[in-house]
Write a structure and sequence with these properties.
Strand order of the largest sheet: 1-2
Number of helices: 25
Largest sheet: 2 strands, antiparallel
Order of helices and strands: HHHHEEHHHHHHHHHHHHHHHHHHHHH
Distance between the termini: 55 Å
Low-confidence stretches: 513-523
Strand content: under 5%
């Protein structure tokens, strides 16, 4: 199929304009919704979201898997006096983040079709504005532009949680913004300091990522505090333990679309930030034994802590929210594993988590629309009255715990395989904790779907309709596709992962077997 579509895309100049369109189209759609009649809001958003995804699909065919560098690149001077430019592009790391963001948008609209009954125009306009900001984060190659999009997405997410959320929505929305904004301010100070330091050393003051990366040696003296500022901003967004406390509240109080967006995209912004900025710009400090030990310990602690806390959650949505902390711990372990396999595994976990956890939140939203409760104790015996919904939930739960043949397995396997040589003890603990993940999810499935049907309200609970089926089928199909045939995903991330390792490898301590070889050669 690539041989068929690639010439067509090249003929229409797809590479030159696609990222601009993907960035601007949701904003244009948001403005259109605000001036259009309220009754058009859902259909108008669905058309914009569908068009966005249709255009983004071309990235899959136009992307060159053998090129580990930036593709679809475009740069235009923006604020020349400050060294700021509109510089965008993607590589194998950001490609799938853009595809996740655009692919989930039509499903978010379908998933919100009946649950959002008030202020529809505002809701769908904010949903589109949020999508534009998310895409901007993943395609920005200028740190000023990146920071603008990073902060702008707080506004629509705050209102999505605060206006359309549950009973404690204002507390959750405020906590989310304060946590994220506090970390982001530190990152802003670090960005300005970087530009100033590199500018004094080179005579060129620029926010360009390429320029700062090429002159990162000038930052060596300030690397400890600069990396710490970036790391705190990204750690809150991941979130890694102990910066995770905003996440369960935000997930539980957000409407279904907000929870899905948090799981699918927002949490990946933190791990993406480590891969794109924090580690490549300050590799000597970030990958030093002491700093690596801190992040690996936090990652493994988060994996274990979140798994244990999930096991005692009475709220089904909060259980899945805590599971995200555990999954993202695997991503952090893979990033600091610093091998091609571990980095590819981290990216695969990011993609798989977005699909499977997003699907779980959709399914929980469907249950809530029927019973208006998220308490596990209020369910039971759902499999007898809603077999299709049950089947989708069981498959998604299996994918989330990493069952072979589904999307969660390949990423976790690569993370563990690629990180073992550098952190064998941490990998051993993380492998054992996978059992806890199976325990809390399968126990929840048993209590919700297969325990005795004792609540009368559950006897009349309806199965999924065609609209809901249209949301679930692409997600479940993606889980199976990634699990059975992951090669297309791995092929598109391999070159970028190798390039990343080449960038940081001079600053990596040798692996155990490499250190042995070095000692033998020194002895000779």
């Amino acid at each position: 199929m690539e041989q068929f579509f690639s010439p067509i895309l090249a003929a229409i100049g797809y590479n030159r304009w696609i990222l601009h369109v993907l960035l601007i189209l949701p904003l244009v759609g948001a403005i259109g919704i605000l001036v259009a009649p309220g009754s058009w809001a859902r259909w108008f958003t669905l058309v914009v979201a569908g068009l966005e995804f249709f255009l983004a699909l071309g990235l899959w065919f136009a992307f060159d898997p053998s090129n580990g560098g930036i593709q679809f690149e475009s740069q235009v001077d923006w604020i020349r006096g400050w060294g700021v430019s509109y510089h965008i592009g993607i590589d194998g790391i950001s490609l799938f983040m853009v595809l996740l963001a655009t692919g989930m948008m039509p499903l978010l609209v379908w998933g919100s079709w009946h649950s959002i009954q008030v202020r529809r125009r505002g809701y769908y306009a904010l949903l589109l504005a949020l999508k534009s900001a998310m895409i901007g984060v993943f395609i920005s190659l200028d740190l000023f532009l990146f920071y603008c999009f990073w902060e702008l997405l707080l506004i629509p997410m705050y209102f999505l949680i605060g206006v359309w959320g549950s009973s404690n929505r204002l507390y959750a929305a405020t906590k989310f913004v304060l946590y994220t904004f506090s970390g982001s301010l530190l990152m802003l100070v670090a960005i300005v300091a970087m530009v100033w330091t590199v500018g004094r050393a080179t005579g060129t003051y620029s926010f360009s990522y390429d320029h700062l990366l090429a002159n990162r040696d000038a930052l060596a003296g300030q690397a400890p505090w600069l990396f710490t500022a970036f790391a705190l901003a990204f750690a809150v967004k991941v979130p890694i333990f102990p910066f995770h406390t905003w996440l369960p509240d935000a997930h539980v109080e957000a409407p279904t679309a907000g929870s899905v967006d948090l799981a699918v995209i927002l949490l990946k912004m933190g791990t993406y930030g480590f891969l794109r900025f924090a580690i490549p710009l300050f590799p000597a400090f970030a990958l030093s034994p002491a700093v690596s030990a801190v992040f690996v310990v936090l990652a493994v602690t988060g994996i274990l802590y979140a798994a244990l806390v999930s096991m005692v959650q009475p709220d089904l949505k909060k259980l899945v929210a805590y599971s995200s902390v555990s999954h993202l711990g695997f991503v952090m372990l893979g990033i600091w594993g610093s091998t091609v396999q571990s980095v590819q595994g981290a990216i695969m976990v990011m993609i798989a988590h977005g699909v499977s956890t997003g699907c779980l939140f959709f399914l929980i939203g469907m249950l809530y629309d029927r019973r208006h409760t998220r308490l596990i104790a209020d369910y039971g015996g759902i499999a007898r009255v809603a077999p299709i919904l049950t089947t989708a939930f069981v498959i998604t739960a299996f994918a989330s715990i990493g069952l072979p043949g589904l999307n969660g397995f390949i990423g976790e396997f690569l993370v563990l395989l690629g990180s073992y040589a550098r952190f064998p003890v941490a990998v051993g603990i993380a492998t054992i904790v996978i059992v806890f993940a199976a325990a809390y999810l399968l126990w929840a499935v048993q209590r919700v779907f297969f325990s005795p049907l004792v609540h009368e309200a559950n006897r009349t609970l309806r199965d999924v309709d065609l609209r809901e089926l249209a949301v679930l089928v692409p997600l479940v199909g993606s889980m199976i596709w990634m699990g059975v045939y992951p090669n297309p995903f791995l092929r598109r991330t391999e070159a970028a992962s190798r390039r990343y390792i080449e960038m940081v490898s001079p600053h990596l301590p040798p692996l155990a077997h490499e250190a042995g070889v070095i000692r033998q050669e020194a002895a000779r």
